[in-house]
Amino acid sequence: MNFSTHKFFPDRLFAALLLALTVLAMALPQAAAKPLRLMAYGDSLIHGYGLGPGETFPDQLQDALDEAGYDVTVINAGNSGETTAGGRARLDWSLAESPDAVLLLLGANDMLRGIDPAEAKANLSAIIEALQARDIEILLAGMRAQPGLGADYVDAFNALYPALAETYQVPLYPFFLEGVAAVPPLNQSDGLHPNADGVARIVEAILPSVTGLLDQLREAPR
């Protein structure tokens, strides 16, 4: 009997098995990275007041990101009529969606109701702090006050978004309705809410800010 054959057979079998497993591993496709979850959090401008399926901001943003090749799920967390206080109150249960990033758009209804900008700023501060405590990235979208509210109110309201962005070091998209506000063909009959074409204009304009946030999120260790 050749004892050397018995001695080395297990080693050869192990080597062959290891080689087979290595080849198999190389042949398998790389596991896809987990899709990012972007939550659009805000009021009727997010929720899609007066719009149909596929026309809302989250829907059109999802389409634009898909077309750009981003593996992202956009979550519609808008609530029509929401103030900053309301957004602050419902934040915890909204975060059950487990977002990686939040596009934060609140304040328009505070402005329309004449709520003190200092109160809106305090509520937005609390929201931002809660998100940052959970390591959730933020894109802050600003609004602008209507001129008829008076110079003091307009100045105080318009200043709160840049101040928040600086304080918390978050990216700011200065005016969500840029190029759409006060443009009748891009708005519904109430003159306040964008129509589907208006939303398309918003998405086109804000998309680089959104993709910049997502690129940064992908590159950061999680």
Automatic annotation (TrEMBL):
InterPro entries: Ester_Hydrolysis_Enzymes, SGNH_hydro, SGNH_hydro_sf. It is an enzyme of class 3 (hydrolase). Coiled coil: none annotated. Its EC number is 3.1.1.5, 3.1.2.-. Gene3D superfamilies: SGNH hydrolase. Keywords: Hydrolase. Residues 40-200 form the SGNH hydrolase-type esterase domain. One of its GO terms (molecular function) is phosphatidylcholine lysophospholipase activity. This is Acyl-CoA thioesterase-1. It comes from Limibacillus halophilus.
